[in-house]
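Hi support team,

I submitted a single chain yesterday and got back a structure, but I'm not sure I'm reading the token output correctly. Could someone confirm the output below corresponds to the sequence I sent? I've pasted both exactly as they appear in my results page.

Thanks,
R.
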Amino acid sequence: MALTFFEKFSEHNLVDYKEGLSTLVNNGRITEYQYCHFLNRGITVIMPGKLGLDHLSKFLPSIVVASSPRYIAKMKIPYQATSFVGAKTHPGSDDTYVYKLPGKPAGGVPLLTGNRDAVGDNLFASIHRILLGSKGVLVSASNLMINKSQIWDWQFFGKRLKTSQPKLYSDLIELDKKINPSNTRYQIVIARSKATFKRLKIIYNFDKKQISVLDPKNGVKVIFVTNEEGYEYVGQKITPSETIDYIVTGEKFNIFKGLVMLKKLYGFEVLLNDGGRQMSNGLRDLGTVAEERITLEPYPGPRIIPSLEKIDPTSILAVGGTGIDGGEIEGTIRINSISIGDERANVYAYPLDDKKVLF
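Hi R., thanks for writing in. Yes, this is the structure output for that exact sequence:
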């Protein structure tokens, strides 16, 4: 088997990581099973400076993935990680963060950085897509249609650095070449049933050539994951081709079976889960999301977030003290944190069920 990028260009010094896990288990923050799981799972540390990416290394001297290549290779499903930006809801010490502002264009996400040049968020989002989403991005059918005119690859964020940080942008191009030299890109669309395709008018929009990723000239291959009824409805209109394929999980939709087939049939080792918070939370609850990569932003000001009392509770991304280790993300341990100016790029790991996800 050919070496993956993580195997070729990463280091696996677990001394500090093991010490951190030992502290958590000794203090009763994690169970003995979780301690053994995280220790066996390991981490990957990529040093941009050792890859000749000197400008990138000034911002991110190390890039951490919450698993080792050895563990990822033993998984029967692709290793999934999410990517979000969250803004602080209060200028003081309050550590509640939101990831969207309902009723605002694009869900208010562009406002979370205070309409400023957020180098940290654009860089971290680009890195995340290069490392974990360059081969495949997992989206819900709803998100596909909300962003139907966009190709959400790393350049969507990286191009914002092209003028302000041209040398950093050049390093991102070089990293992308190292990760995905063939430039093969897949978008995997979760469309549970015929009703999903009908409700979102996917066939209609396809006929009108309004879905960018389904346009062959954009160089993206699309895999729809659906049930038998969904395939029978849409497959005759959006026919399988060199750029469009289907995974049919059976009479009833079964996302876990679909994930197994994605790894078995297509060889996906890692996937970026970019389906939005609802979908990522559902897959997290199923025990198939391993990692969250989040840029935490300072308070963007009262004109954007007037008060915590007016925040929709479903918009809350992080609250200090809810993590297994006392961190911000419920159900996780924080394994890496790097400041980029007044932004903070964090990596969190969810425990997985080895009996479920490993061969």
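A quick pointer for reading it: The chain has a mean pLDDT of 92. Let us know if anything else looks off.

Best,
Support desk
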